[in-house]
Amino acid sequence: MHKHLTGDLAALPDLLQTTRDYAVSVLAGLGERPVAPPPVPVPAAPLPLVGAGTAGALAEFQRRWAPGFSGSAGPRYLGFVTGGATPAALAGDWLTGAFDQNGSNRSGSSAAGLEDETVAWLREMFGLGPEHSGAFVSGATMSNLVGLAVGREWIGRRLGVDVARQGLAALGEITVLSGTAHSSVYKALSILGAGRDALRPVATLPDREAVDVSALAAALESLDGRPAIVVANAGTVNTVDFDDLRAILALRDRYPFWLHVDAAFGGFAALSPDHAHLVDGLTEADSVCVDLHKWLNVPYDAAVQFTRHRDLQVAVFQNSAAYLPAVSGDPDFFHLTPENSRRLRALAAWFTLAAYGADGHRTIVTGAIAAAHRLGARLTAIPGVRLLSPVRLNVVCFSVPTDVPALVQAIADSGEAFLTPTVYRGEPALRAAFSNWRTTPADADRVAALLERLLT
């Protein structure tokens, strides 16, 4: 055994304690750490030949790389709908590495059973029915990809084509309809071979990002009975707008389509008594995307995909080899997702759900919603600032009377907060997305005060 491996094994308890102490100091200092510092180039180091051992590596990380890491785990990182990591989720993530389970199969470990239980908890939390099965994936992009892949197979079966075996060429063109599709949907369609142009944007309601259901009906009518995929939004990126899922579902009486709902973070509206109606009908979707490293506040990366058609999912993703278990009544996870090798992402989610339950996560969700509304109200008092949409859930989208990129940079340079730029209906804007469990009303006030200083 290498001398540093031998030494580290002997000193492992002390090394883990040192790492734990350093991690605690980082978390304790989140309030002072710059939220999103501009990256400073770090001179490249040569490949270590002998290495420095764990203690030496930790010291080098602290010296060279840690100073440039963001405070994205903290309460005022309001970009990209990024959550943090609850204490329980962090503990689960550490144990994920310690146990290092092969999360792809059901042999030799109870890890798959833990993932099944976690998916069942999430299914109940989001108001889905027992007919929805699910699996963990890396993020919303992969969750959308899985849902669309299974939808592609469903279209093929309706037309007498086994796409998983015969390929997309045997099926021909497929049509995907959506009002305000997330960019990851286009990316997924590119990966799946359908092409980005397979997505036909459908008109939205006036001054909304929600689809006009009458326009959607017309688009489906134009297909002359050919099956399609409809991607509905449960929470758009800019304004957290929701498609009317019940009205879309009613179209199934006339038209054949696979309903995929992108509920990456809007699905968490199910936890808020005042907003749960926004996801009414979610349980009847054919596939659903929910991103967990957003509002569930588990570490990157983690998302879950649900579908009511596990047989088609297995047809798409099954992996056959002499050394692998065949598909059974309870398929191994490598038969359900693009990955054969996968870490046990479910453990961090299991820990945070076991620790805080649905009620604890409801508190996180309602607290973030309240903070977003608080910031929205404060912004209306700043001259020249204009809300571009009502604050529907946890995102504030607004325009400012100055150059947006310059303001974004000034916000980041302050170290106080991080907001992302966007364009809404052709107008440059900013968006503040609240989803971190640490965020308090005082943080919303602090961001508002910063913007007021920078704009007046």
Task: Give an account of the 3D structure.
The protein is α/β, with parallel strands linked by helices. It folds into two domains: 102-342, 3-Layer(aba) Sandwich (Aspartate Aminotransferase, domain 2), CATH 3.40.640.10; 358-455, Aspartate Aminotransferase, domain 1, CATH 3.90.1150.10. It is 41% helix and 11% strand. It is built from 16 helices and eleven strands. The protein has helices at residues 3-10, 12-28, 53-64, 87-99, 111-125, 140-158, 163-166, 168-171, 183-191, 213-221, 245-250, 292-295, 310-317, 346-379, 404-414, 441-455, and strands spanning 133-137, 176-178, 199-201, 228-233, 257-262, 287-291, 303-307, 386-387, 395-399, 420-424, 427-433. Strands 1-7-6-5-4-2-3 form a seven-stranded mixed sheet, with helices on both faces. The chain has a four-stranded antiparallel sheet with strand order 8-9-11-10.
Percentage of residues assigned to helices? 40-55%
Briefly note the structural class of the backbone. Answer: alpha/beta
CATH C-level name of the largest domain: Alpha Beta
The CATH topology of the largest domain, please? Aspartate Aminotransferase, domain 2
Largest sheet: 7 strands, mixed
Helical stretch count? Answer: 16
Count of beta strands: 11
Q: What percentage of amino acids are in beta strands?
A: 5-15%
Q: In the CATH hierarchy, what is the architecture of the largest domain at level 2?
A: 3-Layer(aba) Sandwich
**In what order do the strands lie side by side in the largest sheet?**
1-7-6-5-4-2-3
Cofactor: pyridoxal 5'-phosphate
Keywords: Decarboxylase, Lyase, Pyridoxal phosphate
Family: Belongs to the group II decarboxylase family.
GO molecular function, one term: aromatic-L-amino-acid decarboxylase activity
